[in-house]
Design a protein that fits this description.
- The protein has 404 residues and is an alpha/beta fold.
- The chain contains 18 helices and 13 strands.
- It folds into two domains: 138 residues, 3-Layer(aba) Sandwich (Rossmann fold); 248 residues, Rossmann fold (3-Layer(aba) Sandwich).
- The strands form two sheets. Strands 8-9-7-10-6-11-12-13 form an eight-stranded mixed beta sheet, sandwiched between helices. It has a five-stranded parallel beta sheet with strand order 2-1-3-4-5, sandwiched between helices.
- Helix 1 packs across helix 5 and helix 6 crosses helix 16.
- 45% of the residues are buried.
- The structure holds adenosine-5'-triphosphate and magnesium ion.
- Adenosine-5'-triphosphate (ATP) binds next to helix 6, strand 12 and helix 14.
């Protein structure tokens, strides 16, 4: 739907339901809503009333929730996420005045967060902007999609997580890109631990309920590390079945690509078959291996598998722990695999141990050879300064190109 098609006058066809925490706010919302959304539902009772309403009725296009004096308004609001439609635009009101909190609301997909007391003009502007957003999102072609990078270890402990974690951090913090690191090892993944963040929970539910994956729902599982860098990981109980199906992972990554310039996935090699969709979408795949014979064999097998799925991706081999006694030389390894060796990472237990404090290599050994080698991988992927500017313009989506 085009922007011009949005009718903000009476009977625009956009439904609105609002839940105020007090009579004064209810009166204000009622006044503003009566002009643009004559059929609007405006009730008192705040979050509780909103939850009851959403439990009984289909979510409206525009949902206004007054979180009153709640000291944790975002957490409270997220309890409604499951009851909302992917297209529902949420405007929240509350009394906590904090820029960091505002950013978290926006990152969670909330259209706006207004600090009370609110005046009629502010509220009207916020509601119209949210209604506009709702219509804009009808047309997915308007949303530029982020790129997907996948890192796979050719064998256990080869260093895939080290590459993915530090690569994603560098891309976000040194190259100024908006990055989400996704750890698909739901039980034994170590990205969150190595960056000293606690997984938020909810990732497995997200993967198992693809229909419910939307910005708001997903935000409850994302953990922001810095304003540019978020982590999506889990630490599922090892006694629990942590399987999920391909549709969940595809939908999750598709949704993340709408909000992040780069989605960097740490993919357990045993899940390659399940994540074929992800590999098909990737622009870059790195296969990380040590200098062992079995590493070489499986690098070859994984490379061929990825190649069969996606001929456009840049598939490269990262040789790790060079310098440590290995069965074969780096040169022999390079000759034996079907894809180019894009990086040789030195064995550096000292740097790696320093990084166990939950800090990325760049912070504990920024000028060391290992950090520089990881940075080089990112430099080869990330846009250089002049190209970076071009990326600020919406870029074309792969499926659009396929169509044309
Ligand atoms: N270049 C290196 N020098 C020294 N130690 C390293 C190097 N790369 C990785 N390590 C260490 O090797 C171990 C395994 O690394 P990492 O967790 O990155 O591998 P992985 O492929 O993700 O393993 P998993 O199969 O468990 O997912 C870690 O303790 C890590 O710190
Ligand atoms: Mg790992």
């Amino acid at each position: 739907m085009s922007v011009a098609a949005l009718d903000t006058r009476r009977d625009s066809g956009v439904s609105l339901a609002a839940f105020a925490a007090d009579a004064e706010t209810a009166g204000l919302i009622d006044r503003v809503a009566s002009f643009h959304w004559p059929g609007a539902t405006v009730l008192e009772g705040g979050l509780g009333a909103a939850a009851t309403y959403l439990g009984q009725t289909r979510a409206p296009d525009l949902l206004v929730v007054d979180l009153g004096d709640s000291p944790e308004p975002l957490e409270e609001l997220l309890t409604l996420a499951d009851s909302c439609e992917p297209t529902t635009q949420v405007v929240a009101l509350g009394t906590v005045n904090d820029l960091g909190l505002y950013k978290q609301f926006v990152a969670a997909g909330v259209a706006d967060y207004l600090v009370k007391p609110v005046n009629a003009d502010e509220l009207e502007t916020a509601l119209l902007a949210a209604a506009f957003r709702e219509h804009q999102q009808d047309d997915p072609a308007d949303v530029p999609l982020g790129k997907v990078i996948v890192t796979i270890g050719a064998r256990g402990g080869a260093g895939a997580t080290t590459v993915a974690t530090n690569g994603a951090w560098t891309l976000a913090e040194e190259f100024g890109q908006k990055v989400v690191l996704v750890d698909l090892d739901l039980q034994f993944g170590s990205t969150a631990l190595s960056l000293d963040v606690v997984p938020a929970g909810g990732m497995i539910e997200t993967l198992r309920n693809p229909d419910r994956v939307d910005g708001l729902f997903m935000a409850s599982a994302l953990v922001p590390k810095t304003p540019n860098f978020s982590i999506l990981a889990a630490e599922e109980d090892i006694g629990r079945d942590a399987s999920f199906n391909a549709a969940g992972a595809d939908r999750l990554v598709a949704e993340l690509r709408r909000s992040f310039g780069w989605v960097w996935v740490d993919l357990p090699r045993a899940l390659c078959h399940l994540n074929a969709g992800l590999l098909t979408e990737a622009s870059h795949v790195q296969i990380v291996s040590d200098l062992s014979l079995v590493g070489m064999r499986d690098t070859m097998r994984i490379a061929n598998f990825c190649d069969g799925l996606n001929r456009e991706a840049e598939i490269g081999v990262v040789l790790n722990r060079i310098g440590k006694a290995g069965a074969i030389s780096a040169a022999q390894f390079a000759k034996g695999v079907p894809k180019p060796v894009i990086a040789r990472l030195p064995d550096d237990p000292k740097a790696v141990n320093a990084a166990t404090s939950g800090k990325p290599l760049a912070e504990v050994a920024g000028r060391g050879k290992l950090t520089r080698a990881v940075r080089q991988i990112v430099e080869d992927i990330a846009p250089h300064p002049e190209k970076r500017r071009a990326l600020l313009l919406p870029f074309r989506r792969r499926d659009e190109e396929d169509d044309g």
